[in-house]
Design brief:
Length: 159
């Protein structure tokens, strides 16, 4: 879609800046991820709005309250990089069957395969907290869901 527009979209510039700001991948890897050449990547970095997006993303990434998200992102990156190796090991005839099963369990858990109704982290009944940073101020929302006890009469199954 960006190729139809006269210049890069703000979303592209912001996302490109964020990927560079978190420094998980090199500039060349980020360019490849976005399907851009090195020259196109440099053109994005030269855009007037790039530096503001980069600085914001860098500040958010380095914020002290962001350590959990950093850990999740870094773990996801490491997991993604290990998938081909784990898959190869699991299919290698010299890998013991118990190890292959364990590898598939790790792949299943990491890929959240077989989980039903899971929409994100946390357990039912946990408090929800949302913080929206607006530069010099922030909005905070907190909600503790009510505890609900469901009681039912005993039901006997008949075949």
């Amino acid at each position: 879609m960006d190729k139809l527009l006269p210049g890069p979209t703000e979303t592209l510039i912001r996302d490109f800046a964020r990927e560079l700001a978190i420094e998980i991948e090199t500039f060349d890897e980020v360019c490849k991820k976005f399907g851009k050449t090195e020259d196109e990547g440099n053109a994005l970095r030269a855009h007037p709005n790039f530096q503001a997006y980069y600085d914001t993303a860098r500040a958010e990434w380095n914020a002290s309250h962001n350590s959990t998200q950093q850990g999740e992102v870094l773990s996801a990156v490491a997991y993604r990089e290990l998938i081909p190796h784990m898959f190869g090991m699991a299919h290698n005839p010299s890998t013991p069957e118990t190890a292959a099963v364990k590898i598939f369990e790790v792949l299943q858990k990491g890929g959240r395969i077989g989980e039903r109704g899971v929409t994100g982290g946390g357990n039912a009944g946990e408090a929800v907290k949302i913080t929206i940073n607006l530069g010099d101020r922030s909005l905070n929302f907190e909600k503790d869901p009510p505890i609900i006890t469901i009681e039912n009469d005993k039901i006997e199954a008949t075949a």
